[in-house]
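# nightly structure sweep
# worker-07 picked up a monomer target from the shared queue
# config: single-sequence mode, recycle default, output format = structure tokens
# input follows
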Amino acid sequence: MLEAKLDQAALLKRLLDAIKELVTDANFECNEEGINLQAMDNSHVALVSVKLDAIGFRKYRCDRPMPLGVNLGSLTKVLKCAKDDDMVTIKAGDDADVLNLTYEAKNSDRIAEYDMKLMDIDSDTLGIPDTDYDARVSMPASEFARIVKDLASLGESVRIEVSKEGVRFASDGEGANGSVLLKQTDAARRKYARIAREEGEGVSKAEDDEEEQEAEGDEEDAEEGGSKKKKKKVKSEDVEMNGDAEEDEDGEEEFKPKSDDEGEDEQEDDEDSSNKKKRKKAPSSKTAKPTKKSKKSSDEGDSDGGVSIEMNQHVTLTFSLKYLVNFAKSSSLSDDVQLMMSNDVPLLVSYKFGQGFIRYYLAPKIGDE
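# output follows
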């Protein structure tokens, strides 16, 4: 028996929107590790591979490995009946020919159930060999989607060239030509290196946040300690001043008492001087806060956008823009995309998200294809 529960139906919706135009029928292979899908398009030019890890589900149970043959068009129609924030539960018996989907609304008592017929699909799982790619490009998914969409209006093919200068996307059309060059930035290299390190070491964002909070707490403690020291110094100075006054009283000079008017005038002067000090201190405290915000915003700006390139040798390949435009629909699943290339080897376009990944393999064009 299979039972898988997701917190939001939006994930499945976006996933199917990304692959439904490439693949019509496919098997979802379910096992104790999660749900996998692997299928090729009708022309056998592109291959899509999807993995949803069991740990990414709110609840997951799969007693034995089982395939779920599904028509993606029909599944898309059923998922449209769910809201993006609905919890979705997928159920199927061991030998069942029906897939059950249940949608539960979070803010109401609404529960909707749909049954969908399963299909017997004969498909062989292709072994994807591990490849040491000569070039690896990491970039924002939105930028990749924009580039392929713009160039698709000019021509049918795009030439992707990775060199020391950067990564260039060029398209030659009948009426116009166009190219886009993206250069590597230090901020992007640090960003994607940090992401790779976190994935390799299993460092969570929560731990990073805790470290930042501890560092901020140490800074605040240091500031408080400094302010306490300043207060102690001020008190010691006051004591010394009082001591001088006592010495003056004990000295030869006579002490002349002041009148009430003079005392009131002196108090008013003291109040005016204290108010002036407060007014002077107030702007400094206000100006201190924006400096922290500006520093934080600058740190955030360094981590956004940009391209990171890892290259062993110069790579130039040509691909069909029609497929790349379809691949770019996965930008709704992930903020970043990786392009992995080697000469005479299919292009790998990889999107990683919280529950797993989606990967596309596209054969390059040879000659005048």
